Amino acid sequence: MPAWLSTTIFWTTLVIMFVGLFGLVVPVFPGIAVIWLAALGYGVATGFTTLGWVLFAVITVLFVTGAVIDNVLMSAKAHKEGAAWSSLVLGILAGILGTIFFPPFGGLIAAPLVLLLLEYLRQRDFKKALATLRGLAIGWGLAFVVRFLIGAAMIGIWLVWAINR
Fold it and tell me: What is the DSSP string of 64-122?
């Protein structure tokens, strides 16, 4: 592969990964998936060596872990504050639909609003409903920190792969 092409693939992959990493600020943006897809694209474009397969497997494990932990942290903190699982599921669904139909901020508005409304209707206590909303917000913050660290680790592992081709 010519050096100019290899350099272009490297920098394009790195830029896409940084878009994924900084896109994690938006809770419903699939930044971890963007980073993983960039690593996959890099492997397809440059060819997988043995080291590449091993490091891509580690990146994949981090991707799956990040995706699961994200939802667990957000939901668990709100549930600890009293939110019903059904309210959380509907809130997440509202967040997804809000993002699809009213990007980029529809999901950020829809998820907490639906959770607050459902919890108020369920408990008939606005203070308790606000507590669950606060729990969701704290969970979002924790999830962001974890996803950001996992995304940074994925990029670091990819850099080891790319540099040691």
Answer: HHHHHHHHHHHHHHHHHTT--HHHHHHHHHHHHHHHHHSTTTHHHHHHHHHHHHHHHHH
Handedness of CA 97, 64, 85, 77 (dihedral sign): negative
Instruction: Check residue 73 and give its pLDDT.
Output: 81
14 contact partners, CB below 8 Å, separation of at least 6: 155, 159
The owner of tokens 């943006």 is: 29
Q: Is 94 exposed, middle or buried (0-12, 13-18, 19+ CB in 10 A)?
A: buried
Summarize pLDDT for 119-138 with one digit per residue, the tens.
999 989 999 899 888 888 88
**Where are the extended beta strands (E) located within the chain?**
none
Q: Number of H helices and number of E strands within the chain?
A: 6, 0
pTM score, two decimals? Answer: 0.79
